[in-house]
Amino acid sequence: MHGYDIRVAGPGDLDGARAVMLDTVYRDFGSGYVPRWHGDIIDLRGAYLASERHVLLVAVDSRDGAVVATGALDSRGPAHPPNPLWLAERYPSGTTAQLRRVYVSTEHRRRGLARRLVAALLDFAVADGGYRSVYLHTDPAVPGAEAFWLSRAVVVCDEREETGERVVHFEIPVPALTGDLVS
Asked: Which of 3, 10, 36, 138 has the fewest CB atoms within 10 Å, counting from its CB?
């Protein structure tokens, strides 16, 4: 049994993180790299390292130091278009923490890495102090993605039902962000 180190990505982690992400968009999504959807993957430094309100996390295999999983958060809400206008209005940029690129290499799945990455991203959102909601979307055709997010989040829009698109939008309830703390 070996372990994994979850940490904030530094410049030396970017090539490994990019490789995990590109492998996912080609293998799991089947779309390959699409600039309008995946531009952040090419410019990870600008997308996640340049802003104090954004973060890129990596899971590193302790055996060989390889990046095997990623998770990111930024302050951009869903754009309209392509997303429904009401969704963009509900999750405005600046106060919405959007989870992105929660990807685990195939051979490292089912080891709790995505769960650990998401927990650390939510801690980051709470510590920021300016986020009021946590939003994400996923492609339900990716094996395990929909079930994973359904165990942690609430569906706010299933485009399969509304437009026929292969996108499901979620919100993760985080009481510390909304002030709904239980005493």
From this structure: 36
Kind of pairing, strands 4-8 and 55-61? antiparallel
Closest CA to 73 of 147, 134, 22, 154: 134
Token pair in block for residue 151? 């165990």
How do strand 133-138 and strand 55-61 relate by DSSP bridges? unpaired
Rounded Cα distance between 112 and 132, Å, is 26
Within 13 Å and on the Cβ side, how many CA atoms surround 5?
12
Model pTM greater than 0.90?
A: yes
Token digits for 47? 């997308």
Per-residue CA distances from 1 to 35, 38, 111, 116 (Å): 38, 34, 11, 17
**Alpha carbons 81 and 89: distance in angstroms, whole number:** 12
CA 157 – CA 160 distance, rounded (Å): 9
What distances in angstroms separate CA 143 from CA 41, 105, 157, one per listed residue? 21, 12, 20
Residues 28-55 pLDDT 10s: 888 888 888 889 999 999 999 999 999 9
Give 168's contacts (C-beta < 8 A, 6+ positions apart): 137, 138, 139, 140, 146, 149, 155, 157, 158, 159, 160
Query: Higher confidence at residue 164 or residue 169?
Result: 169
